[in-house]
Amino acid sequence: MKELKVGLLGVGTVGGGTYAVLTRNQTEIARRIAGNIRIVQVADRNLALAEQVTGGQVALTEDAFAVVNNPEIDVVVELIGGYTVAKELVLTAIANGKHVVTANKALLAVHGNEIFKAAADKGVIVAFEAAVAGGIPIIKALREGLSANKIEWVAGIINGTTNFILTEMRDKGLAFVDVLKEAQRLGYAEADPTFDVEGIDAAHKLTLMASIAFGMPVQFEQAYTEGITKLTTKDIQYAEELGYRVKLLGISKKTSEGVELRVHPTLIPEKRLVANVDGAMNAVVVKGDAVGPTLYYGAGAGAEPTASAVVADLVDIARLQGTKPEQRVAYLGYQLDQQQTLPILPIAEVHSAYYLRLRATDKPGVMAAITKILADMQISIDAMLQKEPAEGESEADIVILTHTTQEKTMDAAIKHIELLPAIAGQVTKIRMETLSR
Amino acid sequence: MKELKVGLLGVGTVGGGTYAVLTRNQTEIARRIAGNIRIVQVADRNLALAEQVTGGQVALTEDAFAVVNNPEIDVVVELIGGYTVAKELVLTAIANGKHVVTANKALLAVHGNEIFKAAADKGVIVAFEAAVAGGIPIIKALREGLSANKIEWVAGIINGTTNFILTEMRDKGLAFVDVLKEAQRLGYAEADPTFDVEGIDAAHKLTLMASIAFGMPVQFEQAYTEGITKLTTKDIQYAEELGYRVKLLGISKKTSEGVELRVHPTLIPEKRLVANVDGAMNAVVVKGDAVGPTLYYGAGAGAEPTASAVVADLVDIARLQGTKPEQRVAYLGYQLDQQQTLPILPIAEVHSAYYLRLRATDKPGVMAAITKILADMQISIDAMLQKEPAEGESEADIVILTHTTQEKTMDAAIKHIELLPAIAGQVTKIRMETLSR
What's domain A139-299's architecture? Predict the structure, then answer.
């Protein structure tokens, strides 16, 4: 096997981790592949940082295009992020016949179809294990480990920042805004946390997993995305009393009507393993028709966990040098010409169970009125929790867990309930998943 | 890609599942690899069963050697089990230049070095995802997904029968023998359950994982194996009171003195995900130096979960047809000529924390005597539970959790404690693992 020559774009957190892991574990890696992986050029706008990370052992440049155009390089590792320059760099590397490894979920979720097409035309590999759930080898599990299965659904905690925030909200009873500030102070959340807390980052990752699971092109723009900014500790506590945990889940299911592709806060029975994944950790549950439910757990972010995935992709590429494209795993699990553009269900069409919280005046007939509305819409009640009004208040919280119904039916029922004179303000609605079948 | 022609040896549970999954999901599989996998011949001593499983769609034979010697066949799937005929069949298939897929952990744990050597000489693949933890793609995770890491340890619930029994003992407070009978009635345990309940099956699987993790030949005969037959519900309950669950774990750690390779009942903090893996399910925790701890969970046995792994191996082989051996993943993760025969630590040399249960006469000075013995041996106490004597009894249970010490030190301390006049009978010792670092 000839040496695999790597060009590294970006020496931030993951880039630095990649350099460190490749250097520290080069002996083990060489014993595994009977070959060598060597970083021959590094690009970063911060040359001082690049110098510090590499210890002056490697050629440095401020110009990432110098790397993707360097004829000596076999594979480009793109760790810059974003949609614009990163896209141009990746497409240029591909045009130059180089393999690409990237951790850039945003890029692939939005421009994946174009990028994979370009790579197929040039016969090069685009590997992206690090783009989903950090160090957890979930892309490999979905593309290869479960290749015997019809995948029925995928559901995962795939954003560490929000899982950290939800865990803290539950453990310490703190409000979202306060935990967010703490998370920002600790470096678990960005200064602008929108991508994380609004579920966009999770939707990027879910988009990639869903494409692999169901053999369809990426369709990020069709994903339903709802973040955790409106979640209250009250709802987390009520859920707990009823035996549930609240997690930001990315869920994709194949149904006879279409594919569900949705990210939102979700109640999960506390007995499920995935309900007990706390802090910044990630976990993905995959249900296959043959294997049943399987779960993959680990660090979803951080320098070395993400580098673990980047380097594993490099090891695969090193081994696969000289193979024909059909001897490699398809980019998104299915051969590109075998993908089917399945319709993504609008959220109104999705079936789910629900957690509802209402504030109602404590007088006779309220409960009868609410349950009549639900019954009229064929929505069954699974559990109910009626709280006493707080000292000096006349309104009390009522929590209702429903059986499965269609979202638009639930929304119509909620509209009716909100019109009841005894109901104060809006009804809080959170979706529920049992993840059992 | 040319069609991959498969010969199937054995149509029992897993063989039947393999036929069913390959048939049912042939469209998805063909879309993934742009090729076809076809079972062209099936061998089973029970021709009527083979006829029933295959619906008369495939050539049948009672003679497994007819399959391994069939020049039309590319890959032999060995699902017969055992060490003798299975070994001859696998070696003959290899000698005939055929790839092999097997679920036979016993065969590979005991004869793996010989079999992989023979396969390397002929340049054929021997794939065995189904041999460890059924449908969980743990072999792929260890060999490929975590290839960037120095693996530090592996710990898993890798025998569904014993995990089912332990879960029932805990949930229902029933004794081992009673649950075993129930498990046999339900088909979760064999008529002769020795391989499962004595930890031998788990040790086979652990042997394979340890070889991959640490780059060493299989050394099953060096594994320490202790089953669950002597576990009492009392110990399970006391562990619970102290915040622990008891699981039969296969544990392999690389230390500076050597490799630990051991299967035994183990106390695990209840907060760990793996402590909450119940029933017949399996889970493996792998700690890598870059990725940190990762966990893989799913069905460890059963027709279709195991078939999921068998067929995934076939998909890999179909794709890899025409590749050179160096373009494939090494059998045991590391290239055969790069394996190192690391010493396996005898159990007396292993460091562990311990759960001890003693029965002591309830009189002054007993506790002082016990704690003095431990202190003299430099064994620190982490927690203690002293029970009141039952009505009408003069002896009471004392439970002690220790910090880490060497097994031989612990055993010497136990010998001293058992000599105390106030101590009745033997001290019960169960190892503990935090699985945190």
Answer: 2-Layer Sandwich (3.30)
Q: Is the pLDDT of residue B1 over 70?
A: no
Q: Residue A5: how many CA atoms within 13 Å on its side-chain side?
A: 13
Residues of B in Cβ contact (< 8 Å) with A32: 147, 215, 330, 333-335, 338
Mean pLDDT over the full length of chain A: 96
**Distance (Å, whole) CA B129 – CA B119:** 16
Annotated catalytic residues of B are 205
Is the minimum CB–CB distance between B22 and chain A shorter than 8 Å?
yes
Supply the pLDDT for residue B2. 78
Task: Determine the average pLDDT of the residues in A45-62.
Answer: 95
Largest CA distance in chain B: 81
Quick check: A33 contacting B, CB < 8 Å?
Answer: yes
| B114 SS3 class | helix
Whether A36 contacts chain B with CB within 8 A: no
Cα Rg for chain B, rounded, in angstroms? 24
Record: fold of B4-135+303-338: Rossmann fold (3.40.50)
Answer yes or no: do A144 and B315 touch at CB < 8 A. yes
What residues contact A159, with CB distance under 8 A and at least 6 apart? A196, A199, A201, A202, A205, A248, A282, A300
Which tens digit of pLDDT belongs to each residue from B75-122? 999 999 998 999 999 999 999 999 999 999 999 999 999 999 999 999
CA distances from A136 to A127, A284, B130, B292, B370 (A): 14, 9, 20, 10, 46
Which tens digits make up the pLDDT trace of A284-315? 999 999 999 999 999 999 999 999 999 999 99
The model's pLDDT over B253-289, given as tens digits with 9 standing for 90+, comes to 999 999 999 999 999 999 999 999 999 999 999 999 9
Which residues of chain B does A333 touch, with a Cβ-Cβ cutoff of 8 Å? Answer: 32
Domain boundaries A347-432, corresponding CATH code: 3.30.70.260
User: A412-435 pLDDT, tens per residue?
Assistant: 999 999 999 999 999 999 999 999
Instruction: For residue range A111-166, list pLDDT tens digits in order.
Output: 999 999 999 999 999 999 999 999 999 999 999 999 999 999 999 999 999 999 99
In this structure, what DSSP letter does residue A337 have? G
Length of chain A: 437
The percent helix, strand, coil of chain A (3-state, each to 5) is 40, 25, 30
Partners of B61 in beta bridges: B43
**Stretch 204-263 of chain A: residues touching chain B, C-beta under 8 Å:** 215
CATH number (3.90.1150.10, 3.30.360.10, 1.10.8.60, 2.60.120.620) of B140-299 reads: 3.30.360.10
- DSSP letters, B418-437, are HHSTTEEEEEEEEEE-----
Give the mutation candidate from A13, A294, A320 for the B interface (greatest B CB count, under 10 A). Answer: A294
* CB-CB neighbors (< 8 A) of A308 in chain B: 146, 148-149, 288, 290-291
pLDDT bin (cut points 50, 70, 90) of residue A1 is low
Q: How far apart are CA B22 and CA A186, in angstroms?
A: 50
C-alpha to C-alpha distance for A40 and A5, rounded to whole angstroms: 6
| Residue B310, SS3 per DSSP | helix
Look up A324 and say whether it is catalytic.
Answer: no
Mutate to test the interface with A, among B144, B335, B437 (most CBs of A within 10 A): B144
CATH architecture of B349-432: 2-Layer Sandwich (3.30)
Structure confidence at residue B228 (pLDDT): 98
Q: Output the pLDDT for position B20.
A: 97
Is B140–A141 a contact, with Cβ atoms under 8 angstroms apart? Answer: yes
Asked if A229 and A413 count as a contact pair (C-beta separation under 8 A), the reply is: no
In B44-125, where does DSSP find H-type helix?
47-54, 64-68, 85-95, 105-122
